[in-house]
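Technical note accompanying the year-one report. For the benefit of new consortium partners, we illustrate the data format agreed upon in the data management plan: each record pairs a sequence with a C-alpha cell string. No post-processing was applied to the example shown here.
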Amino acid sequence: MQEITRIKLWSIGGGKGGIGKSIFTLGLGISLSRLGKKVILIDADLGGANLHTLMGVHYPPVTLEDFLLKRVERLEDLIIPTEVEGIGLICGADDVLGAANPTFAQKIRLLKQMEGLDAHFVLLDLGAGTSFNFLDFFNYSPGKIVLTTNQATSLQNAYGFIKSALYRQLSREFSRDNDMLEMLFMMAGKPEYETPRSIRELLAYLKDAFPGEYARVVRVMAYMRVWLVVNMIKTHRDGNCARIIQEVCRDFLSLQLEVLGRVPYDSAVEAAVNNTNPFFLSQKKNKAMAAFQEIAERVLKESRLPRTAWVTEEELMEEKEPQEPAATAEYSSYYFW
C-alpha cells in the first residue's frame, strides 16, 4: 500500500470550457510523478470525457460508465496503465443515458472509493459548467483547485463556479431547513432589499437571533479552502487577474483564496494536445512544465499539512479595510455578481 498524504484527493474545476483543465490535470500529474509519487488521474466529466485522448488512449477498455452501471464493482479495476511512469488513468464516461446523471447513491459509492485508491494523489478533472455532479465532486475533495485565464468570461465563470460550490455546500448543510434554504436561494441569485447580500451579512443576521444556524455556517466556511491557478499567461497583467477573483470572493463570499500558481502560455502544450502525446509535456525545458513542477511542489507541501479549519470565526466576521481595487471598468465587481 502506498504511503498516503493527508490530502490525497484534488479536484480541478473552473466552470468554463477551453481553459485547459485537462492539460493542467495531466501536467500536474506528470510533475507529481517526477517527485516520486504514484498518481491516478480520473476524468470526472461524465458526459464529454477527453483526458484519455490527451494520454494517447484512443479506445479505453473500461470507463466510469462500467462502474456506475455496476458492470465493475471496484473502482481500482478501471485503472488503465499509461506510458507515463507512475500515472494510472480512469477514463470518464461517454454521453450515454444514465452515466452523465448518476444517482446520489452512485455518486457516494464513487466518491468513497476514490479516496481508497492505492496512490499518493488522485486528481479529478471536472467538466465545464456548474452541474451538481461537478460541484459535489469538488466539495468532497479536500484539495480544491479552480483554474482560470485572464479572459473576462473565464474570470466570471471561475467566480460563478466558486460561488455555486459554496452555496451548494451550504444548501446541503441546511437541506432540512426550509427557511435557510429559501434565504440561501435568494442570496445565490439576485438578493432583494432586505436579504443579506454577502456571507458576512448573513452571519451578522444569524449571530444573535439564530446561534445554531450561525455556528453551522461558520463550520462550513471554516473548511472551505480553495486554491486558484491562472493558466495560459502571456503578459504580467494576465497573471495579476487572480487578484480580481480574490477580492470579489473576499467581499461577497468571505473566502480567502490562495494563488497556487501561474502557468505561462506555451506552444509545446498545443503540440501535446494536437499530437495526443503527453511526452511533449514532460520536456524539462518546457515553460509550462516548469510552472507545473513548481505547483506540484506546492501541492505536495500543502498535502502534508493537517486538515484543520482554514479561517476563524473572527476572521469571517471581520470588516475588511477598503483596498485599492484591482478591478477595472473591464472587470467590475458587479460584473461577477
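Partners are asked to follow this layout when depositing records. The first helix runs from residue 21 to 34.
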